[in-house]
Amino acid sequence: MISRRSEARINSLEPPPAAPRDLLRWVRRPAGAPVLICLPHAGGSVLSCLGLAAALSPHIAIATVALPGHDAPVPDLSVDEAPPLADVRLLGRALASAIADELGAALAPEGLGVTLLGNSFGALLAFETARALERDDPARAGGLHLVVSGFRSPSRPPQEAPLHRLPRAQLLAELRECFGAAGPDVGDLLGPCEEAALRADLAACETYRLIDATPLRCALSVIRLTADPSVSAEESAAWREVGAGPVGFHMLSAGHFPWSGATAAFAALIGDLIARRQASAERHPFPTFRES
Fold first, then answer.
1. Which of 34, 119, 141, 158 is deepest in the core (most CB within 10 A)?
2. C-alpha angle with apex 257: 255 to 262, nearest 5 degrees?
3. How far apart are the C-alpha atoms of 229 and 195, rounded to whole Å?
4. Per-residue pLDDT, 283
């Protein structure tokens, strides 16, 4: 249950928390390209998106999100170390602020456009980031595209018992049972910092409840991963409840971690979604990418 004090804090107009200055890490940034921002699964790091980035068209600018406590510091960059934050609303507000500061022109109606791509925990964070961007400036909806997979609609509460408080061995066993694997960043090499990040992300998911029912106005694409047992067809279809703009549904034969488990097929679908969004917004589409 969310207290009245917490609800008041969430809905207040206080500025977002200060974000690390390297919150967005660029994989590549060709001039004049549409932007794709990757938000990985719980416990995921910058490394989680590199395989997917390599499979996508080089004509797409790609950044990934480096959440506090999830990645090693950038070499030669002075950044205050911060623990992971188990509050997806605060993270979304901080990330929205960073995106607006760096990519405000791309979000304008005449801009090149920004796609937020989130899988699992990343889908929820991408949703809250999109909400914060639209709340601060409704005109941004025209330049924003939200693509999600591997997570129930935010309008639906979790159905399973919480995982983030379980002992380590039981936690990893439950993750394998729920998601088919512990994921590319979780396993025998999970150190104390990585485990803290994983638990914070799981807590953010498991304690989240949708308070403000104002629907998104941006384009929304929902990818149903047909081999993912953690999200039912009904929970996936319920994403329509949180979108007032164009909502598209797509299916992919993949498990809970498509960025690594079905990289080529997932990249092809993402590239097609971005190209179609560019065309529908009457922006100049990027050239078709074919592997040599």
1. 119
2. 70
3. 23
4. 62
User: Does residue 30 carry a pLDDT above 60?
Assistant: yes
Burial of 56 (0-12, 13-18, 19+ CB in 10 A): buried
For residues 209 and 10, what is the distance between their CA atoms, to the nearest angstrom?
Answer: 12
The structure tokens listed for 276 are 């179609």
For residue 188, the tally of other CB atoms under 10 A from its CB is 6
Three-state secondary structure readout of 129-193? HHHHHHHHCHHHHHHEEEEEECCCCCCCCCCCCCCCCCCHHHHHHHHHHHHCCCCCCCCCCCCHH
Q: How many CB atoms lie within 10 A of CB 212?
A: 11
**Alpha carbon of 98 to those of 18, 25, 67, 147, 260: distances in Å?**
9, 11, 12, 19, 27
Strands (E), the chain: 24-28, 35-39, 61-65, 114-119, 144-149, 219-225, 247-252
Which of 273, 246, 282 lies closest to 112 in space, CA to CA? 282
Q: Are 45 and 73 in contact (CB under 8 A)?
A: no
Return the ∠ at Cα 280 (arms to 109 and 135), rounded to 5°: 40
Whether residue 14 has pLDDT greater than 90:
no
CA distance 280 to 75: 41
Find out whether 127 and 146 touch, Cβ atoms under 8 Å.
yes
Cα atoms in the 13 Å half-sphere on the side-chain side of 127: 30
What would the pLDDT profile of 159-171 be if each residue is shown by its tens digit? 676 776 777 777 7
Q: Are 74 and 80 in contact, with CB atoms under 8 Å apart?
A: no
How far from 100 is each of 10, 130, 134, 186, 289, CA to CA, in Å? 20, 11, 10, 32, 29
